[in-house]
């Protein structure tokens, strides 16, 4: 097994790209293999399971149902609640300790706020809609994979939404712009920018950034994201359509 | 021709059209839920949460007995209410009831009437958007289930299905599960009849 030297802030010394190929053999704008299944939790109103490279994430959506606690209810629309959590066995790092933490609170918040933009929450006053995201295995880019899975689960639940959402991270590793960073590129690269984009009107719903980037680099990255998000949307659409296929479908396997 | 599956955010018509589960962005109309578009460009949502409508028949469970009436769990964010003046029988906590929606106000409170108590049985949660398939055309599907299960079944628009304990429960539950999974397919009634005939129930 390769041993990675962990150094925050990025370093130019680690060679992450050799002859235009990355550590896992991908080209610069190539996504990892994505597989999405919708409707995997029978008791949930909507659910999805995503395998994005080595990331494995389950997402369940419940609601609209009675808002608890009652004082959290809003007469203007449903309250969206989102809980992102990493399983204790999901990664080797400290942040995979289960339970609420700074990191999981932040990710729950950014995922919720990205989805609030596309959901028509005003149709369900005084209710709540809950999104539960559980990371079973983490390998860099869980927030984007979670957001992608959550959009599928919400569509599967029939919660009215104006648009589908796809998310992907772009960044800079070894002075080169790359799409869909994996763990080594995330930890040892120079910059990382997760972006969520709505499919129809290409609105930016989430932009976070680690490290430094120039204006030109960001505008180039946005073009890369747009292309990648279209690819991800195709996988999402396929997962949702597959539930309603007329021929006999294969039973879902974890 | 096959129906086309529409995803949220997909355009279903130029300009404004009046259909459920759609939204208008000032120029065109888009779908807000996963649904189908048939040859006549009619859009139907495949999944959508239940919205109570007056005159709907619903199945519920009594969750509270009060002086003014009964609170009923209706598979909705808010519970329904049976005012004492709308009911002549005395109900108990945990009773299953079949009633009609008499009033829905703007915040979603539901008033019920025409109450019937249902005997001992089982209440299932079923996706409300797939209820029409469970009933079938001119209630053909429910008749098949009743015939082969040897008991009563009551389907509420709210997504609660009451099954009498007299039914052949394992077979009926399996059949209902099959209808739920294949709700978008055609020729389902024949398929279910075939399944019930061959799966130990007989004619």
Q: Which terms would index this structure?
A:
heterodimer, A: 254 residues, alpha+beta, 5-stranded antiparallel β-sheet, 4 helices, B: 203 residues, OB fold (Dihydrolipoamide Acetyltransferase, E2P), Ribosomal Protein S8, Chain: A, domain 1, 3-stranded antiparallel β-sheet
Whole-angstrom Rg of chain B: 19 Å
CATH superfamily of chain A: GHMP Kinase, N-terminal domain
Q: What is the beta-strand fraction of chain B?
A: 25-35%
Class based on secondary structure composition and strand pairing of chain A: alpha+beta
- The CATH superfamily label of the largest domain in chain B reads K Homology domain, type 1
Considering residues with a beta carbon less than 8 A from a beta carbon on another chain, report the largest interface and each chain's count: A-B, 32 and 25 residues
> What is the CATH class designation of chain A?
Alpha Beta
Low-confidence stretches of chain B: none
Please report the distance between the alpha carbons of the first and last residues of chain A. Answer: 26 Å
Number of helices of chain A: 4
Spatial shape of chain B: flat
Number of domains of chain A: 1
Oligomer: heterodimer
The CATH architecture classification of the largest domain in chain B is 2-Layer Sandwich
Q: Strand arrangement, largest sheet of chain B? A: 7-8-9-11-10
Radius of gyration of chain A: 18 Å
Strand content of chain A: 25-35%
Gross morphology of chain A: globular
The CATH topology of the largest domain in chain B is given as Ribosomal Protein S8, Chain: A, domain 1
């Amino acid at each position: 097994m390769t041993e990675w030297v962990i150094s925050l802030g990025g370093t130019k010394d680690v060679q992450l790209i050799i002859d235009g190929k990355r550590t896992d053999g991908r080209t610069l704008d190539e996504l990892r293999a994505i597989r999405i299944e919708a409707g995997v939790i029978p008791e949930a109103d909507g659910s999805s399971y995503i395998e994005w490279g080595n990331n494995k994430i389950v997402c369940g959506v419940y609601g609209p149902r009675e808002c608890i606690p009652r004082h959290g209810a809003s007469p203007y629309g449903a309250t969206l609640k989102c809980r992102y959590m990493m399983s204790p066995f999901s990664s080797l790092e400290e942040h995979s300790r289960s339970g609420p933490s700074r990191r999981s609170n932040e990710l729950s918040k950014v995922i919720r706020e990205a989805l609030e933009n596309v959901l028509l929450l005003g149709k369900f006053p005084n209710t709540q809609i809950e999104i539960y995201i559980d990371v079973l295995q983490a390998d860099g880019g869980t927030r984007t994979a979670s957001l992608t899975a959550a959009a599928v689960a919400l569509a599967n639940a029939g919660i009215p939404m104006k648009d589908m959402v796809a998310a992907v991270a772009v960044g800079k590793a070894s002075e080169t712009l790359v799409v869909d960073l994996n763990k080594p590129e995330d930890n040892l690269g120079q910059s990382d920018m997760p972006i969520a984009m709505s499919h129809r009107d290409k609105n930016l719903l989430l932009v976070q950034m680690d490290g430094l980037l120039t204006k030109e680099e960001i505008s180039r990255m946005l073009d890369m994201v747009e292309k990648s998000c279209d690819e991800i949307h195709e996988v999402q659409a396929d997962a949702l359509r597959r539930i309603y296929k007329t021929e006999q479908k294969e039973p879902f396997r974890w | 021709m096959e129906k086309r599956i529409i995803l949220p955010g997909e355009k279903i018509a130029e300009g404004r059209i009046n259909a459920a589960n759609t939204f208008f962005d000032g120029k065109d109309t888009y779908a807000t839920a996963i649904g189908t578009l048939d040859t006549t460009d009619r859009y139907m949502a495949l999944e959508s949460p239940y919205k109570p409508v007056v005159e709907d028949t619903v199945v519920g469970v009594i969750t509270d007995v009060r002086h003014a009436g009964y609170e009923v769990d209706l598979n909705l964010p808010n519970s329904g209410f049976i005012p004492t003046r709308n009911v002549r029988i005395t109900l108990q906590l945990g009773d299953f009831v079949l009633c009609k929606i008499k009033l829905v106000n703007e915040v979603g409170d539901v008033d019920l009437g025409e109450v019937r108590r249902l005997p001992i049985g089982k209440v299932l949660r079923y996706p409300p958007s797939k209820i029409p398939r469970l009933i079938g055309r001119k209630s053909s599907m429910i008749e098949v289930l009743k015939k082969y299960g040897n008991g009563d079944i009551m389907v509420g628009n709210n997504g609660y299905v009451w099954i009498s304990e007299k039914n052949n429960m394992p077979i009926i539950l399996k059949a209902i599960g099959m209808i739920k999974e294949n709700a978008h397919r055609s020729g389902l009634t024949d398929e279910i009849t075939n399944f019930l005939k061959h799966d130990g129930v007989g004619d």
